[in-house]
Predict the structure.
Amino acid sequence: MQPTDARFVDQSLEALRLTLVEGNLDFGQFDVLQEDGLTLRNRGVAIQARIIGASHVISVLYGDRQFHEIVACVGVREDKGVHLSDLTGQKTARQFDGGCYSIATKTVSWGTEESAQLQALLGTVQSSPLVGGIALNQAFPVGNLPGIPRTIVVVPPPSSDDATIKIYTEHSYPGEGIVFTHTEFDMEVS
C-alpha cells in the first residue's frame, strides 16, 4: 500500500504503550483507519483487528465475553496500560476469563536488522488476500521523515486443531525504531 493522506500524527516510540481491557471497549475514542475480522465458527470466537492512527486494537470476542489488546501512543478511557518500552524483550502473560493472553515485543533501530522481519510481514499483506486470516497495512505520508511510517497487523489463518490465535504487528517510527509484537491468545472455549 502506498502512503496515503491518512490522518497521521507524528508520535514517538517512547510513548507507545500496551493496554489490556477485559469487557466492553468504547471504539468511538479511536480514529479507525482500517478494520477486518474473522470468525472461527468451530470455536465460537470472533477476532477483530483495527488500525487506529499509527496504532492497533485487537479484539477477541467469545461467547458473551470480550478481551482487547491496544498498542497505541494515546491514552485509553478504560486504561489499565503498561508502557510497551517496559515490556520490550520480554514475554508478558495474563490469564483472562476463557484463556491466556501473551505478548512478546522487540524493538530494533531504524534501518538495521528490521529488514527481514518487516519484509516478511509486508510480503504477507501485499500478496494475494490472506484467505482465512487478516492482513492490514497502513502507510502514512512521509513528509521529511527518513522512511515510510506504517502499521501492519497480520493474523494468519489458525489451524483447525490449534486453540492458539497468533497475531503479528509492526509499528514503525522513522528515525527512531520499529516495534514488532507477537501476541497469542490460547483459548479455552468449549
